């Protein structure tokens, strides 16, 4: 799987998830550049998101300016051989500030980790099944059509979640979460292992995800391979 393939999975899945409340449309402007944004009829549009794999901040910023995109984020996704600090400093010179960093991982689904014993993971593919999970958050998780959720719970509360989002090129892993007081007990591994086996059974060619620093330590243990780094930036001012 190429970096472009992995990023297309991310763009398709992310825009689909964000479209739950209002259409958020991805457009590929160049082989190395995508823009995700609300449709023009939305009165209070969300900030546009630019996804670039150019590895060249000047090229990306110049193309964004020509397109007249307006207020936006830029996610520069580059391979580890490109100097991290160099990308950051160049965007800073161009008038952007750094927001966050995540790591892009891919699992080829060829060598799956064994399922975790002693932790029951519930596969959720219907609204009826979703309703059986005792959620304690004020804003309840919803099952998006076409996706599969995996959950761990006890009699009174939900303890962990993760979502499998199928796309044309492979599967996207969304929103792995374990209740803080239950972390370090294997719940994240159990959820991810069930998701990987499900993805393989569905015939997916690869599993793709973005990881925080904490996740970046877990996923290699499950067979994920780091493909790239995502650095997010936004203009330092609206001027």
Whole-number count of domains: 2
Strand fraction equals 25-35%
| Mean pLDDT reading | 95
Our measurement of the CA-to-CA distance between the termini, rounded to an integer number of angstroms, reads 40 Å
Overall body shape = globular
**What's the helix count?**
6
- Over all CA atoms, what is the radius of gyration? 19 Å
Kindly describe this structure.
- The protein is of the alpha+beta class and 239 residues long.
- It folds into two domains: 110 residues, no CATH class; 84 residues, 3-Layer(aba) Sandwich (Aminopeptidase).
- The chain has six helices and eleven strands.
- It has an eleven-stranded mixed sheet, sandwiched between helices.
- 33% of the residues are buried.
Helix-strand blueprint:
Elements (H helix, E strand, L loop, with lengths): L2 H16 L5 E7 L2 E6 L9 E5 L4 H11 L4 E7 L5 H10 L2 E12 L14 E3 L2 H4 L17 E6 L4 E9 L4 E8 L8 H15 L5 E5 L1 H6 L6 E11 L4
Parallel strand pairs: 3-4, 9-10
Antiparallel strand pairs: 1-2, 2-3, 4-11, 5-10, 5-11, 6-7, 7-8, 8-9
Which features characterize this protein?
239 residues; alpha+beta; Aminopeptidase; eleven-stranded mixed sheet; 6 helices
Concise structural overview:
The chain is an alpha+beta fold. It has helices at residues 3-18, 57-67, 84-93, 127-130, 187-201, 213-218; strands at residues 24-30, 33-38, 48-52, 72-78, 96-107, 122-124, 148-153, 158-166, 171-178, 207-211, 225-235.
